[in-house]
Each structure stands twice: as structure tokens, then as C-alpha cells.
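Example 9 (inverse folding). The structure is encoded as follows.
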């Protein structure tokens, strides 16, 4: 799969996930298998204003090449300034634009999965990003639309091609679906049939390497984007590389090997965040994902999930039954689930799909989940 100057094999992308895909987690995933690994979503205003937290979030490990940043923005001028800043200051090698985030604090500003409904505003944003990115490839990630009555993905795909976007990723759900129900892979197939000039990647319900192969076979997409399926499972990228190279081998780590990975993850966060207490608190959300399916007593799970120091976490990890084998039937949904009653939008957002009005306070000055 070719994205701008980059040959990406296997054709696998780590989806940007707020609070998850920071440098320590990306490094763990990269060690397992190749692909394209994208950092957490960065707001364009925060980047342009050099918000200290945002500037820390775009730090990459020395081993990370190519470096991929995902931007969230609603104002074409600010998006353009952010893209130019990334290119001129060599902050990354690839820019991805977020038009898929379904959370209310994003959609109520007209951003994320709400934005492609405004076709001309989408066009202006893409044009500004591509024009200012120089030689850097610009890609975009989107959803099917706001809801089943307001689908936008086919129009957005054609606009992307016309404005010079290098690749498109489609999550087969609407914003209203959030992470509930089943991803619509048929929509990915329809988009691939409509957009033949650039790579189309599929996203949604890839819980195993075999799911990825099945998505490519059923939809004809050029590659896959993996999000929640790798939570607590960085070795999924080893499986994906083996699968796309025709191999049958799949990673089945023992609980001891999982514990070692958990320790390395926490140590990486400690180095990244500088403040150990904050790093360990951030790691706690990963505990349940790493231990899913293993037999671990409630008291020890609670001890691991409430650790307050790196030494305390290591002490608790040492109590795990290290030779316990990988549990069967664990290639199942992880992370958030459930649909929303409605999508939060700016007042009058659905009145005219072609106006270019940027909502007041559309641009957030803070990055992160």
C-alpha cells in the first residue's frame, strides 16, 4: 500500500486513540510488526499556539519512522497553519485529518464526524491542509455520516480525491452508532468501488488478524485501520504481519509474557510523562485489557488497577501465575461500546450541507481525550 512516498507493508495502520496511542504504546506495537502508527489526535489551534501539553504529545521515539500526526480542526485557516508548521519544522512525516471522532465535545463544535456533512467546508479544510503540507502526504479518517439519514462518506471520498488527499480510511459506523452495533463493511466496499484513484482503508470490528484478512477479501479495501482490537494486545501487529505475509502463526503469550509487557508499558509511560504518579494512573486503564480472559483473582486485579507507583505495580505483577497459557476465545470486542440517542451538533448544523460557516468556538485550544 502506497501513501504518498511511503510503501506501507503490511497494509496496517494503528488508529489514533485519545489517551492510548502515545509514544510508549506505539513503540510496543511497532516492535511487534510493521505498519503505520499514528499519534493521538492533536487539535490544530493548540498546535499553532504551541500549547505545552500538545507539544509534549507530538514527541516521537527515535525509532519511529515514518512519524504520523492526526489533526483535528474546523477552521480551514488554522488547519492550514498547523499543516505548514508540521512541514516547515519537521514535526512529522505524514498528516492524518480526523473526520471520524463521534464524542459530543467534538461534534457539538462541528468537528470530527459532524464535519463532512458540510461539503464545502470539508473541501476548504482539505485544500488548506494539502496546500500547506508541502511534500508530506495528507490522509483522512471518517465515518459513514452523522446517522443513517445523513450519510456523507461517498461525497467525502470524491472530495478527498479532488483535493489531493493521499488515502482515505472509513470506519463503518455513523456518529450516532458511536461504537455500538456491528460495523458496516458493505459501506467500505461501496467506497472502494467509488474511489479507485487512492487507497481506501477499512476500520471497524477488527479483533484479530483473520478479521483483517476477511475485511480485505470482502470489501476489496487496500488496507486496514486497527483501533480497539489492539487494546492490551500490542502483539496483534505481529499477527497482522504474519497474516498478510501468508503465515498461520498467531501470538499466544503466557500470562508471564503479558505481565512483562505490562511492566514495559508502565515504564515507558513513566519516562514519557516524567511524573511517575501520573504515568501509573494513566496505565491503570490498560490493566483490564491486558488481563482479559486470564484467571486472576478479584483482589489482585484490584491491586493492579489501583497501583500508585511503578514499584508497587511491579510487585503486584510478580504475584500473577506466569505460566498460565493464553486464554481461548479472547478475539472479542474491547473498549467502548454502545450507541448514542443523538449526535450533539451546533445549532442549525443540518440546515444547509453546503455552507462554509465555521461555528463559534469551533477550535479547541487543548489536545487529548
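The amino acid assigned to each position is listed next.
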Amino acid at each position: 500500500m502506497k501513501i504518498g512516498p511511503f510503501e506501507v507493508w503490511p497494509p496496517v495502520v494503528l488508529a489514533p486513540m485519545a489517551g492510548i496511542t502515545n509514544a510508549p504504546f506505539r513503540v510496543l506495537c511497532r516492535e511487534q510488526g510493521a505498519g503505520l502508527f499514528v499519534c493521538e489526535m492533536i487539535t490544530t489551534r493548540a498546535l499553532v499556539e504551541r500549547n505545552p501539553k500538545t507539544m509534549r504529545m507530538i514527541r516521537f521515539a527515535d525509532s519511529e519512522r515514518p512519524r504520523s500526526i492526526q489533526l483535528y480542526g474546523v477552521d480551514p485557516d488554522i488547519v492550514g497553519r498547523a499543516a505548514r508548521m508540521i512541514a516547515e519544522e519537521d514535526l512529522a512525516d505524514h498528516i492524518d485529518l480526523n473526520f471520524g471522532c463521534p464524542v459530543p465535545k467534538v461534534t457539538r463544535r462541528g468537528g470530527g464526524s459532524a464535519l463532512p456533512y458540510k461539503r464545502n467546508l470539508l473541501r476548504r479544510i482539505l485544500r488548506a491542509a494539502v496546500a500547506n503540507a508541502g511534500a508530506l502526504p495528507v490522509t483522512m479518517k471518517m465515518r459513514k455520516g452523522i446517522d443513517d439519514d445523513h450519510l456523507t462518506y461517498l461525497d467525502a471520498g470524491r472530495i478527498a480525491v479532488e483535493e489531493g488527499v493521499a488515502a482515505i480510511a472509513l470506519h463503518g459506523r455513523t456518529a450516532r452508532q458511536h461504537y455500538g452495533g456491528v460495523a458496516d463493511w458493505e459501506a467500505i466496499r461501496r467506497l472502494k468501488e467509488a474511489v479507485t484513484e487512492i487507497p481506501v482503508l477499512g476500520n471497524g470490528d477488527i479483533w484479530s488478524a483473520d478479521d483483517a484478512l476477511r475485511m480485505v477479501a470482502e470489501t476489496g479495501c487496500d488496507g486496514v485501520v486497527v483501533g480497539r482490537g489492539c487494546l492490551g494486545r500490542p502483539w496483534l501487529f505481529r499477527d497482522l504481519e504474519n497474516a498478510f505475509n501468508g503465515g498461520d502463526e498467531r501470538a499466544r503469550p503466557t500470562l508471564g509474557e503479558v505481565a512483562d509487557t505490562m511492566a514495559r508499558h508502565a515504564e515507558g509511560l513513566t519516562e514519557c510523562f516524567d511524573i511517575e504518579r501520573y504515568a501509573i494512573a494513566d496505565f491503570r486503564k490498560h490493566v483490564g485489557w491486558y488481563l482479559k480472559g486470564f484467571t486472576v483473582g478479584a483482589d489482585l486485579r484490584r491491586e493492579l488497577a489501583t497501583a500508585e507507583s511503578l514499584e508497587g505495580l511491579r510487585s503486584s505483577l510478580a504475584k500473577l501465575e506466569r505460566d498460565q497459557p493464553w486464554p481461548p476465545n479472547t478475539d472479542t470486542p474491547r473498549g467502548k461500546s454502545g450507541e448514542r440517542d443523538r449526535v450533539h451538533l451546533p445549532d442549525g448544523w443540518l440546515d444547509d450541507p453546503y455552507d462554509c460557516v465555521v461555528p463559534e468556538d469551533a477550535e479547541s485550544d487543548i489536545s487529548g481525550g
